[in-house]
Amino acid sequence: MKIIVAGTGFVGLTHAAVCSEYGHEVYAYDIDQQRLSAYRSTERAQIEHYVNEPGLATVIAENHERYLFFVDDLTNIIEGVDAIFLCLPTPPNRDGSSDLSYYFNAVTHIAGLLAKRQDQRRVVLVNKSTVPVGTARQLEQVLKQHNVPNAGVASNPEFLPEGNAVEKSRHPDRVVVGADTDEDFSIMRRIYSQFTNHVRIRYLETTPETAEAIKYVANTLLLTYISFWNGVGARLGESLPNIRMEDLKRGVTSDDRISTWGSYVSNGAGGSCFGKDIQSLIYQLNSVGEATDLLQAVYRINEYQKTYLIDRAIEEAGASFNNKTVALLGLAFKQRTNDMRDASSLQVVEALLARGVREIRAYDPLAIAEAKRFFNPEQNHLFERITYHESPKAALAESDMLFISTDWEEFRGLSRTIEATVQPPYLIIDGRRMIPDFTELVKRGYGYIAVGSPYLAPES
Ligand SMILES: NC(=O)c1ccc[n+]([C@@H]2O[C@H](COP(=O)([O-])OP(=O)(O)OC[C@H]3O[C@@H](n4cnc5c(N)ncnc54)[C@H](O)[C@@H]3O)[C@@H](O)[C@H]2O)c1
Question: Hey, whose CA ends up nearest to atom 31 of ligand 1?
């Protein structure tokens, strides 16, 4: 099949690369020239500067200019295309609604080109972007306004988890396709022929509106589960005596009906999707007069988690941040990615700076380049107080306190490094419960405050 993928960010690049592995002729289109040059170079470091996903650079290098082409102009490519996947950004507006301007800019441009095709074979425009319920219908209107002949619309939401995108794109849990006609379902089946009769992958065909809703319900349900553990599990562990959080989790999730995924307590879930998708769903339901109390509580709990440990450190441990040096371990929104969109660390940095810290000594195995973009001193001179370091040890050196904000596995062995690098009195603030042997550190005179546990004052 001849496929265009419009938008080559996290979703579009992964989708284009994995589609090319199945022998489709894939044109990955973007308006960002620098991004395209980096992809065309097929150099891992350059590709990963934009999208850092295990295995992705290899798939691109293997298929580039065989099945996968990076283009900044669709004029000569539009002929004979079977499907156009729309993988454009849909960030939140201030009121929580989805900003569809990138999406409609791209769609209007593409509709203009489609209207002028010579070859008028059936083409499907497929929404992979997360878009409000009803957007496929609006897309249909745009095609009508441009008199595009023989075109259909489909909704095929993306569920990829960052950090495992290639693997999950090859073996998704499910593929959801919402369309209106047999012809369009049939085109989608040919594109996804590796999944339609798969023994494990569920291939679901439904209406475009249902497909759009599935994405929002799935994402907000995941965040609801995370917020349940934070809003209930963490509060129990912090306020009632003698509760072991890890045992609580194991005991509760030793039940086939209860998910182990998400059964952790943390300083909040970040990333480009959860926050914006729940805000968008709240907006969509409010717009039709429905109550959204549950969703609002879920969103509030998640936001609260991001910085509340700083307030606990002040209230429970008597900490003062003014003029202090804080080591900040972890900047990415979760492990195995360099993505910092909506990462908890963004709010942690803001909160620490607002409380007058002298220096933030930051370390992350992948996200330092991203962090420098987010914390640009030209936009806020206080960001000059952030210094970047090549190892946890280097970040810890000469610090007064530690804040752990990302669940990188390498932080699990931190206690030795802490003992070897910084001496008590020293406060450890653990947003991810990454230090399993924290009681040892407390015995040796370190203060420890973690999500899900009461403050442990130094014992010596
Ligand atoms: N990131 C995720 O984990 C994830 C997962 C599932 C779904 N989604 C959804 O997928 C969509 C895309 O997300 P993303 O993270 O890949 O976004 P992204 O910001 O990483 O990438 C978007 C790309 O679109 C390009 N673009 C913007 N306007 C364009 C235009 N007019 N024509 C062509 N290209 C254009 C940008 O240059 C950029 O390369 C969003 O709706 C998002 O909610 C994201």
Answer: 106
Ligand 1 midpoint to CA 272 (Å):
10
- Ligand 1 shell residues, CB under 6 Å: 6-12, 29-32, 35, 87-90, 102, 105-106, 129-130, 158, 160, 162, 272-273
Domains located in the chain, CATH noted: 2-206 (3.40.50.720), 216-296 (1.10.1040.10), 306-450 (3.40.50.720)
Active-site residues: which are they? Answer: 273
Supply the pLDDT for residue 460.
Answer: 75
Distance 392 CA to ligand 1 centre (A): 32
Locate 329 and state its tokens.
């371990």
Q: Please give the backbone phi and psi of residue 91, each rounded to the nearest 5 degrees, phi first.
A: -70, 165
List the 2-6 sheet strands across, edge first.
Answer: 68-71, 25-29, 2-6, 83-86, 123-127, 151-155, 174-178, 202-206
As averages over each run of 10 residues, the pLDDT of the chain (460 residues) reads 98 98 97 98 96 96 98 97 98 96 98 94 97 98 97 97 95 97 98 95 98 98 98 98 96 98 96 96 98 98 98 97 98 95 98 98 97 97 98 98 97 96 98 95 97 94
Residues 6+ apart with CB under 8 A from 43: 57
Pairing of strands 123-127, 151-155: parallel
pLDDT in tens, 269-318: 999 999 999 999 999 999 999 999 999 999 999 999 999 999 999 999 99
Whose CA is closest to 133, among 279, 299, 289, 284?
284
